[in-house]
Write a structure and sequence with these properties.
This protein folds into two domains: about 1-80 and about 120-190 and about 310-355, FAD/NAD(P)-binding domain (3-Layer(bba) Sandwich); about 355-539. By secondary structure, it is of the alpha/beta class. The strands form four sheets. Strands 16-12-15-14-13-4-5-20-21 form a nine-stranded mixed beta sheet, with helices on one face. Strands 1, 2, 7, 8, 9, 10, 18 and 19 form an eight-stranded mixed beta sheet that branches. A two-stranded antiparallel ribbon has the order 3-6. It is globular and about 65 Å long. It is built from 15 helices and 21 strands. The protein has helices at about 20-35, 60-70, 75-80, 120-135, 180-185, 215-220, 270-280, 280-290, 335-350, 360-375, 390-410, 420-450, 465-475, 480-510, 530-535; strands at about 10-15, 40, 80-85, 85-90, 105, 115, 135-140, 145-150, 155-160, 165-175, 190, 195-205, 230-235, 240-245, 250-255, 295-300, 305, 310, 315-320, 460, 535-539. Helix content is about 40%, strand content about 20%.
Length: about 550
């Protein structure tokens, strides 16, 4: 993968700065949509990458998985990864030395729509090879030195093997991750108040939650191994992840609210090990048994941020972490990549066909920002709720309702870039997001009043057996004509209102002071849901 001398002063239709997950997948999507387009990817690292590359984004959920599998057509590559057994949560109990005492929220079996754990190094190597097979020029070990921006005629100066090269492009896409080359150049950075930090590392061994107890009843309450889930250990102000990778390594991460667990308590590997001993000692014990197989460590301070602008008619765009990043909880990173790349592909492909793209640039920016803002309340000021099994299990199902009931059907039906359709869908999404803000307020207030340690210990909440959850998940694969899709969205919104009513009723049953939260949205019967709390299969 080298630079040809004749590339100096060459001009490409599209130059993508960054050959990670976002940049490589965008190159593939663009080439599939515009086969005659000349596309160049400039990447500072070398290929092939080390397997199990140490990056956030090893776990995908339904939208991201659908993007890679169906929209990009990469099922043969995904088949080499681990099929994910959903998201699984263990809530703090006593000193966290006995996992059987921790309330477990998770699926006992696979749901209809697949998702995957991605071994990022291996996956990105496969993406790079696929790019080259499509005729995309991938320049590795090349560092961008400067950008000269002009309307659909920008220039990238990059260095490779000591030589500086110049490349002109009609479209320049920043997929450089947190280096954010364009964002820095144009002063587009925008902060966010969500102040959360992360530290993570890899161990070259399987660390399997199933092995943490010999209790037979606890072991058999899942049909399949918990090892295939994205496992979360929840405590006040933090969560710890354990993600299995197809290379055999395990990724372990600590994500914590700065106000409760300051960054300087986790920002080195030794400090992270000490933190785990204090807050997750059972997990720590399993890691220390394999400490000689330690691979690498990274950390990020205040990792959430926004961007003033993502798309421009002048011929530039931002995608992936170069643009906006919210939170790794629920693994939404690949979802945002898939949505963002879809908008960029629509804009650039229409431009290359000679179409006026001013409406696309404006409307796609509006849509992506509304989605990002709509999901932000799920995370902001919510880390204190993580220690409460009752509140957080309710919140998780509500968050699924927002995801599978609102945004995901639009993505699966490839409607986010359909401007005419989105004009009809936008009011429905607004009602979803407005209700979500009030529900998230309720969860914060509920947590303050409720003592989780008074709830029963060691129960299993099997969300895969909730009829509402199963139906929402199945419906994602049922493609619909416009009117039927709008009807489904309205029905999902109605179900969301009924679910909100039931959750609100459950909360005020114990804490009448929560009536001031004014969450209830409808007077309709909640029998449609057949009793949300009673539907959990407790084992």
């Amino acid at each position: 993968m080298g630079v040809r001398k004749e590339l100096i002063e060459d001009k490409s239709d599209v130059v993508i700065m960054g050959g990670g997950l976002a940049g490589l997948s965008l190159a593939i999507q663009l080439k599939n949509k515009a086969p005659d387009a000349s596309i160049m990817v400039i990447e500072k690292a070398r290929f092939p990458r080390p397997e199990a590359a140490l990056k956030v984004g090893e776990s995908t959920v339904e939208v991201g998985s659908h993007y890679f599998e169906k929209i990009l057509g990469l099922k043969n590559i995904l088949d080499q990864e681990i099929r994910k057994l959903g998201l699984r949560f263990f809530f703090t109990r006593n000193d966290n030395r006995d996992i059987t005492l921790r309330t477990e929220l998770g699926p006992s079996h696979f749901l209809t729509v697949w998702s995957y754990q991605l071994d990022r190094g291996r996956f990105e190597n496969a993406l790079a090879k696929h790019c080259e097979n499509l005729g995309i020029n991938l320049i590795s070990e090349a560092s961008v030195r400067d950008l000269e921006l002009a309307k659909n005629d920008s220039r990238v100066l990059f260095k490779k093997r000591g030589e500086t090269h110049s490349l002109k492009a009609k479209w320049l896409v920043d997929a450089s991750g947190r280096a954010s080359l364009l964002k820095r150049k144009l002063g587009l950075a925008k902060s966010i108040k969500h102040n959360i930090n992360a530290a993570w590392f890899r161990i070259a061994a399987k660390i399997n939650v199933d092995d943490w107890s010999t209790d037979v009843e606890w072991k058999k309450r899942n049909e399949l191994t918990r090892y295939a889930s994205t496992n979360h250990l929840y405590g006040k102000g933090y969560w710890t992840w354990l993600i299995a990778l197809s290379s055999g390594s395990t990724s372990i991460g600590i994500v914590a609210d700065e106000r409760i667990h300051p960054f300087n308590t986790i920002n080195t590997f030794d400090k992270a090990r000490e933190w785990l001993k204090n807050y997750e000692p059972q997990c720590s014990d399993r890691i220390e048994e394999k400490i000689d197989l330690f691979q690498d460590f990274l950390c990020l301070k205040h990792f959430s941020y926004r961007c003033k602008q993502l798309y421009s008619e002048d011929g530039w765009c931002l995608t992936g972490d170069a643009g906006m990043f919210l939170d790794p909880l629920y693994s939404p990173g690949s979802d945002f990549v898939g949505m963002n790349n879809g908008f960029i592909t629509d804009i650039i492909s229409k431009f290359l066909q000679g179409q006026n793209i001013s409406q696309e640039v404006h409307e796609h920016e509006r849509t992506f920002r509304s989605i990002f803002s709509g999901f932000t309340p799920i995370y902001e000021d919510q880390y204190s709720t993580m220690a409460n099994s009752k509140v957080m299990s309710s919140k998780f199902v509500w968050d699924l309702m927002m995801y599978w009931g609102g945004i995901a059907p639009l993505f699966f039906n490839q409607k986010l870039t359909d401007i005419e359709f989105m004009n009809f869908a936008r009011p429905i999404l607004f009602d979803f997001f407005n209700l979500n803000v009030r529900m998230q307020d309720l969860y914060r207030a509920w947590t303050v009043l409720d003592d989780d340690q008074q709830h029963p210990a060691g129960i299993f909440l099997d969300y895969a057996e909730l009829p509402l959850v199963k139906q929402l998940n199945r419906d994602l694969l049922v493609l619909k004509e416009d009117e039927k899709l709008l009807k489904q969205l309205r029905e999902n919104l109605k179900s969301a209102g009924e679910l909100a009513d039931e959750i609100y009723s459950e909360a005020i049953k114990d804490y009448s002071e929560l009536k001031d939260e004014n969450v209830s949205t409808s007077s309709s019967s909640i029998a449609h849901l057949k009793g949300f709390y009673n539907e959990f299969t407790v084992r």
